[in-house]
Each structure stands twice: as C-alpha cells, then as structure tokens.
Amino acid sequence: MTPTHLSGRPAIPSLPTVLDAFNSAPAAEARGLLLDCLRSLRWADRIAAHRPYPTVEALLAASDEAAYDLTPSDLSEALAGETLPVLPDGAYMAAHMAMDAAHAAYESKFGHAFVICLDDLPPAEALDHVLAEIRSRLTNDPEEERVVASDELRRLAKGRLVGLLRGAGNCATSPNGAAPNA
Known about the structure:
Elements: E1 5-6, E2 9-10, H1 18-24, H2 27-35, H3 41-49, H4 56-68, H5 72-80, H6 93-110, H7 123-137, H8 142-166
Antiparallel strand pairs: 1-2
C-alpha cells in the first residue's frame, strides 16, 4: 500500500506512544505497572485484561470504573499499600511532628494510612492542605471515611496512570502534560 500524499508530501506514520507500549506489554508487566498506580490486584488485573485501550481517555475511564467496583477487601488491600504523602523539602521539624501525630490519630481510628490526592495543589500548599484534611476527616465515621478514602484512591490511581503514560515526549498526553479531557 502506498502512503497517502497530502500537498505533495508523503504521510508520516504515527510514532508509537507509551499507551501503545502499555497495550502491547505482556500481561504480567502491565499488571506490575498498574500495581504501582493502585495496590489492588483485582483492579490491576481488570485494567490489564481489557487492553488494548484506544485512547488515554478510555484507559482512565476504565480505571475509574474498576476503582468504583472495589470491594471492601480490595479497598483494604489498596489502602495497605499506601503511605503518608511526603512533606516538601524544607518543612520544619514541627511540621513533621504535626503530620506524624495527625496521621497516628487517623490510623488509630480507621486502621489504614491516610490517602489524599494532591495532583492539582501547589507544593507550597500541600502540608497545610493535608493537615486540614486529616483533621476534617477524623470527624467522619468509618463508613463515611471508606467512601472518601476510596474516592481519593481512585483519584490517585488516575493521576499515577497519567504520570505513567506521560513518558519522555509521549504524545498520549496533552502538551501541558495532563491527559486530554482528564
């Protein structure tokens, strides 16, 4: 088949993207990459099993759907794989102590790590936001908090998938680095 010519120039075949590499990776490799995004075996297996994804948007939609379907056991498994957000460089010792104390209170009440997605937050605001959210969410009852934590895990997984797909010069994401329509 001869390439189509536009304005007297041959068409340039599209370059493979990170999404293409993810779609064609062996199942075990794709599953491993997905487990770096969310530590739920069921979620990772489900996303890997439904490849190939035609677009980043389709992959992110599948991620959301699979995250919404996490059972309480799946959610516990995913929460067990999470750690407290890292404090920004230069945070004072008092900030570390406040974060440790707030997290200890949270973990004591709910039995799992505090999870929060900070993707759209400037790093300078992260510490105050995390501390305020821990304090606020400590007022939740355990069932309310499981719903909030599940939503935060879903947002974290989506952000991590975007980061995974961003790759070096990957055209699967928009020029500003965000997934299209994400």
